[in-house]
Amino acid sequence: MRRAYRLDVRLAIVVTVISALTLIGAGMILSMEFTRGQFAIEERGLSTQVEEWAGLLRRDPGGTVVLDRPAEPSSAIDPPYTGLLSGTRPVYGYTVTDATGTVLDRSDANAPAGRPGPADPEPVLSTGPTLDGTGPVLIAELFVPEFGAWLRLARSRSDVTALTNTFFAQSLEELGWAALAMLVVMVITAVGIVRFSLLGLRRVAAQAERITFDNLGHQRLSGSSAPAEVQPLIAAVNHALDGIRAGAVAQRDFSIHAAHELRTPLADLKLRLEGLASGPDRDAAMQDIDAMARLIEQLLQIARLDGSTDFSLQSLNLGETVAEVLQEAAPRLVSAGWLIEADGLDLPVHIIGDSTLIALIIRNLLDNVRKHTPVGSTVTVTISNDGTLLFADTGPGLPPGFACSGFARFVRGNDDARSGSGLGLSICETAMQRMGGTFSLEPTGSGAAFRMAFRLDQRPQSDEHMGTHRS
């Protein structure tokens, strides 16, 4: 089975990747803009510089046009430069050429190579190599008509790249932690927004967990707080629950009607058999009819319990309720040879339940005693202050492996179909569930024992309220 993914984790990864790519893209764009801006500054500065230095051209005594080099600054130039035109790393380099490209004068370093361009009185910018091949340089070329020569001023192109790298190295050093913190804040914010947005979906999931067969008639999913993307799913689930509810009601109604319809022919058949002379076939047929009548009655009980519409829970005195049921149902069992003992019936234990369901449970357990324990066995009914009712007998106990059935319907303790339908204990468990309690098998050394845990009524019991249940 494929493992389900967590949406908030996946979105956190997506946000992290997108944020990182955004920062990288922003850095690249900023680098390009910085480089382009720096190039523009360098180009404007070099154009201005070549116009200023054009006024320094002169003819030497031999008639050759040379540049009257400007004085070096008195203060030191910022490293890595060593001077304007001097030193191992000058800022500028120049050449003075004639129309044929002959170099009339040049600097010691960064002297630009190449033939001059058209005789343009405005500076012309280009890139090219140096005379000594030290690398590409940015060249500003200006034609000086009074000398008939071209002044070509150059500056190293690599300076811009170095300056850009230095700028970003310092920026990362100073702003790197801020960018990392911003990335973390973005991820946490995105995950927080996602988790907050999924709260409505979690509420719907909690609603779905509370839907059971008992409240299927009125409990549905409410999608008002869920995202719009899951609204169709919520509507589909509610529609499916409506269909399940309709099917359950139809099945219950069919069982009730079938049980009612079968009662009459079975009663007529039993009357006919009672009029016949006693014999093995007649006695076996009577047993079969009694088994069918019990099965029909239990199917009717199951259908009513599954419908859970005929019972209203209220505060009951557990001891008084059990005593009333035993007074009505126990005499027939006692007269047949079984013993019944009751303890704790006088305890003021008030529970939330339904007297009809309690009577149904005790009658099914007594019927099991009559069918599955020998005559002379003892039945003990014990009520405790914690709202539990223990029903135990001294019979042979449950068969091995029966406890693993979980009180499933139509699971019998033996193969004799006449002894029971396998519905009695399932009816007891379902009835306890309808009252919000539990029905469980109690470990015992001999016989069988069942524990019923009711919900206690925590409200204070007044004399008037208690008297109402005694009447």
Automatic annotation (TrEMBL):
This is histidine kinase. Its EC number is 2.7.13.3. It comes from Aurantimonas endophytica. Residues 257-458 form the Histidine kinase domain. Residues 195-249 form the HAMP domain. Pfam families: HATPase_c, HisKA. InterPro entries: HAMP_dom (IPR003660), HATPase_C_sf (IPR036890), HATPase_dom (IPR003594), His_kinase_dom (IPR005467), HisK_dim/P_dom (IPR003661), HisK_dim/P_sf (IPR036097), Sig_transdc_His_kin-like_C (IPR004358), TCS_sensor_his_kinase (IPR050428). It is found in: Membrane. Residues 105-130 are annotated as: Disordered.
